[in-house]
Amino acid sequence: ETGVTQSPTHLIKTRGQQVTLRCSSQSGHNTVSWYQQALGQGPQFIFQYYREEENGRGNFPPRFSGLQFPNYSSELNVNALELDDSALYLCASSLGVGQGAGTQYFGPGTRLLVL
Amino acid sequence: QKEVEQNSGPLSVPEGAIASLNCTYSDRGSQSFFWYRQYSGKSPELIMSIYSNGDKEDGRFTAQLNKASQYVSLLIRDSQPSDSATYLCAVNNYGQNFVFGPGTRLSVLP
C-alpha cells in the first residue's frame, strides 16, 4: 500500500458529461501527478501539481483540468467527455522536485468508462 | 517529443531463469529512471529507481543504467510465476516531465 487513495474506483458516464476524480496524496508529499492509461498502453502524463500550482502539462486538451488543495489532495476534471476518454486514471504522489524527489507512488486508479 | 521505448513482449521465461527487460529513451536530459511492475487491472508498483551509471541491486532485481547509450535495463534473477506482470520503464528530469514506456509483458512459466 502506497498511502495514495483515489475515488471513485469505477465510474460510468455518457459522452458529453463532465467528471471529477479525486486523489489524496501520501503523507508528507506535496506533488501530485495525473496519468491516463488506455488498455495495453503505458501511462500518459496529463499534468502535475506542486504546492497547489500546475507544474507541467502533457499533450492533453484544456477540457482536462485540475486542482490541488492546501492539504495537497487533488482533483482531475474532464469536461465534454469523449468515448476515447475511457481509461484508467492514475494519481501519483511524490515529494517535490530534485534528484530522489521524483519517485512517484501510485494510487489504485479510477477506471472510467464513457458510453 | 520525448520517448521511452520498450519491447512489448510477451517475454516468456521458465521459472528460475533470468528475465532481462530493456528500455531506451530519447531525452538526454533525463536524470531519474524507474522500473514499475503492473499486474493486470492494478496500478503500477515501484520496483527500482536508479540515477547513476552502472548497476543497482535490490534482492532479485538489478537495474542497469548507461546514460551514454540512453539505455536502462532490469534483470530479474530466479524468476517466479508471481513475477508475471507488465514492467514499465519511466524516466524524468528531477520530478518533472515523467515519461513512461509502453511496458513489456513478462510471463514466467512454471
Description of the structure:
The complex is a heterodimer of chains A (115) and B (110). With 115 residues, chain A is an all-beta fold. Chain A is built from no helices and eleven strands. In chain A, strands 2, 4, 5, 6, 9, 10 and 11 form a seven-stranded mixed beta sheet that branches. Chain A has a four-stranded antiparallel beta sheet with strand order 1-3-8-7, with no helix packed on it. The termini of chain A are far apart. Chain B is globular and about 40 Å long. Chain A binds chain B through residues 31, 33, 35, 41-45, 48, 50, 55-56, 88, 90, 92, 94, 96-109, and chain B through 4, 31-32, 34, 36, 42-46, 49, 51, 88, 90, 92-103.
Any idea what the radius of gyration of chain B is?
13 Å
Helix content of chain A: under 10%
β-sheet strand percentage of chain B: over 45%
Helix and strand run of chain B: EEEEEEEEEEE
- The number of E-state strands of chain A comes to 11
Strand and helix map with partners:
The complex is a heterodimer of chains A (115) and B (110).
Chain A lengths: L4 E3 L2 E4 L5 E6 L6 E7 L6 E7 L2 E5 L6 E5 L5 E5 L8 E8 L10 E2 L3 E5 L1
Parallel strand pairs in A: 2-11
Antiparallel strand pairs in A: 1-3, 3-8, 4-5, 4-9, 5-6, 7-8, 9-10, 9-11
Chain B lengths: L3 E2 L5 E4 L4 E7 L6 E7 L6 E6 L3 E5 L2 E6 L4 E6 L8 E9 L2 E5 L3 E6 L1
Parallel strand pairs in B: 2-11
Antiparallel strand pairs in B: 1-3, 3-8, 4-5, 4-9, 6-7, 7-8, 9-10, 9-11
List keywords for this structure.
heterodimer, A: 115 residues, mainly beta, 7-stranded mixed β-sheet, 4-stranded antiparallel β-sheet, 11 strands, globular, B: 110 residues, 5-stranded antiparallel β-sheet
Question: What does this entry show, briefly?
Answer:
The complex is a heterodimer of chains A (115) and B (110). Chain A is an all-beta fold.
